[in-house]
Amino acid sequence: MAVVTPQIVEQVALLARLRLEGEALSATVAQLDRILEYVKRLQAIPTEGVEPTSHVLPLSNVMRADAPQPSLAQEAVCRMSPSAQPPFFKVPKVIEG
Amino acid sequence: MPAASWLAQPMHVLQPALAQGTLSPAAVVEELLARLASHNPALQAFLEVSTERLRAQAHALSQQPRQGKLYGVPIALKDNLCLQGELTTCASRILEGFRAPYDATVITRLKAEGALLVPRANMDEFAFGSSTENSAFGLTRNPWDASRVPGGSSGGSAAAVAADLCAGALGSDTGGSIRQPAAFCGVVGLKPTYGRVSRYGLVAFASSLDQIGPLTKDVRDAALLLSVIAGHDPRDSTSAPVAVPDYLTALERPVKGLRLGVPQLSEEGLDPQIKQAVEAAVRQFEQLGLQVERIALPHLPHAVEVYYIIATAEASSNLARYDGVQYGHRAAENRHPNALLDMYFSTRTSGFGPEARRRILLGTYVLSQGYYEAYYLKGMKVRTLIKQDFEQAFQRCDVVLMPTTPTPAFRVGEKLTDPLQMYLSDIYTISANLAGIPALSMPCGFSAESLPIGLQLLAAPFKEDVLLQAAYAYEQATEWHRRKPAISIK
Q: Percent of chain B, pLDDT > 70?
């Protein structure tokens, strides 16, 4: 049985803000299905009582003094944007009026 | 020494000549430019060569005292490392035109030691791949055989070192992206312990796995380059406050009595020539006085599954920032009622290549409601088991030995249409990233078709010194690292 369906992949693409239609959709469904079918082999491994590892270093809550430090200039940051009017980033209109 | 052969030398030979003044940075740059002009168009190890910038650097260095561990030494930089004022694109259209506003910490450290920086080595887009074919700006070819891939994702860095288009290089390794191309191109590649090298200024792929490391012509150079980039950095909260030992002194330590762990591996998909070369390396280590221990890494066969859950989940989250607003590419806007949303979709769909889109989708899927426990949580638990396998192994041995790759370099196009086959080429390298341990690949033989074969050594966390010590002893006893592709300087 297929792990993923076109409907599931369409929903995931919507969440990921990627357009996926027609042949690209069916090809992606087939590829993801083959990969996930392989990945499913994990289900056979007993993991009862095993703690998940999200991070390998025994580090937690790395803090520094709450003191201001130099940062990038607003102007320099805005210059990286494809559309900016320092000190603002410009985006398409979101409110009609 | 003939005038035009400096780039063939390892960094530890080049640097003293530059520091003593028998060779000038300008002479190195002119030789480099000549080689790049004749070989880069065919190999495409670099996406761009800035003649002016290289000459300006040589001039600036000539005005400085001849000091620094890397004074005048040309180091290639993978295109995911931020170099202030220069393009940094991760070989992706979505970052086309992006100029880094600051230096990565590794770059600051290279500059402080007088290195000559050579941007931008080609890579798979966002480091997604094992062949450098996923670069949005064209593939890199293997210096040993132009019909084959150099490996990936740091394929440009590895090809540049092998073809003498630089003295050494930096790459990044999330699942084997330094070691696998090092093996395919016959050079040394080291992925340090997670936390050993600061990642400030490295464009993120999978944050619990990524590490920056050296690709070099020999083991001494790997020790030298690591000694420059290793150490705590307050700008990277995952960088470890652990003292950095003297890696160059460690090379000279006697290896007799070190325990070498050799795991029982499944031979499915393993090229018999690789198996033979690796078995011969085990015998070589025995002759050097290492004590061979047979060990078990029972969860290793599941590393690929765990990796493609965790790495894609983290990538989908890291790549959410590319939305056309703050930097990089933005697709043309329209007057659609949902213009902002439409801009996000158009920007991301046109900006990311096929493999990036595939991984974002896979990662979004494994993190989404209803699938999280079956995939992501399960993956993190099996990651614990893989890590424990290594912890147990390192109670019985100092260094683990296995192949770097199941086959030598494959042909251009061979695995491009089958993502799963491409993923499986990382089967031996992925576990070191999941466990966070250091691992090194070095040449240990050649196939019948004269393609390099890589040997992988792994050690316990922060034991890069032991890794380099064992690797150096093997290198001193063998000649593999002296063999060079026809394209190199003879």
A: 98
